[in-house]
Amino acid sequence: MAKTRKQTKIEDALEVWLLDARAARLTPRTVDFYERSTRLFITWAAAQSVTTVEQVTTLHVRGYLAELTRREYSSNYQHNLTRVLKHFLKFCVGEGIIPESPFTDNIRTPRMEQKELRALNVDELRRLLRACDTRRDRAIVRLLVSSGVRAAELCNLNVSDVDLVTGIVRVRHGKQQKDRVTFCDTPTRKAIRLYLLERGDTSPGEPLFLTLLRGERLRPNTIAQLFRRLQVDARVPHANAHACRRTFAINCLKGGMNVHVLAKLMGHANIQMLERYLPLAEQDLEEEYRKRGPEEV
User: What is the mean pLDDT of the chain?
Assistant: First the structure.
C-alpha cells in the first residue's frame, strides 16, 4: 500500500522560503516584506480552513485577491502582495512541495494605477530647504536631490561613503544588493560638511546621518516623517524622498545626460524606468522654451 505523503504547512514552507531569501542575500527589508505579505495570506487562508500548501487551489488564490480589493488597499500594495504570493507558490513548486502552482497564468492580477509623477521645481525646493529646522535635514534634502539615492540607500551611507572633495557618493548594498557610484554637487557637500562639523568628531565608519534624539543610524521611516513635516511647513504636499530622486532624474535628462549613464547613477538595471520621466522632462523643456525661447519676429 502506497504511503501517503505528509502535507506541508504553509507556515513551514514560508520559513524555508525566508531562509532561501536570506541565503540569496536579499536585503533584510525585502525579506521582511516577503514574510509580512505571506503571513497576511496565511491568516486569510486559515479562516478558510486552509493550512497546508497542498490545500491551496486556484479558487483560493482568486478569493484572496478579491479580499485584497474588498479591503480597499492601494493598487500598488495589492500588486506587491499578489506578486509575493505568486513568487512564494512558484518557490514551493521548485522545492517539490506541490507539482504545480495554483496561481495560474490566467489569473488576472490587480492593475496598478498610473499616478501622476511629480517632481520638485526650483521654488518648491527652496521652500523645502527654508523649512528645514536643522543642518542635518538640509543636508538630507540636498543629497537626495543632487545624487538621486533612495531613502534606504541614504540611511545606509557612512561618513566615508561621501567624498566631500570630489563629490563621489558610494552606494553600498543598494537595491538588489548592488554597489554603485553616484555624485553630489558643491552646495550639498558644503551642507554635509557643516552638519558633520556641528556633530563633532566623526570616524569614517560611522553613519553619515544620525537621529537627533538617540544618535542612531537613520531609518527610512525617519526620512518619511521628516518629509511629512516639510510637506506642511513648506506647503509642498507632494514632497517626499522619491520626489527628490525623480527631480534628480529629470534635471539630468533636461541637461542632456545619456539615459544609460543616468540608469547607472540611479541603480536601474535598464532604462525602462527612466522612460516614465521622459514626458516630464520634455514638458519642462517645452515650458522653458515658451517662457525664455527666442522672440517671434
Answer: 87
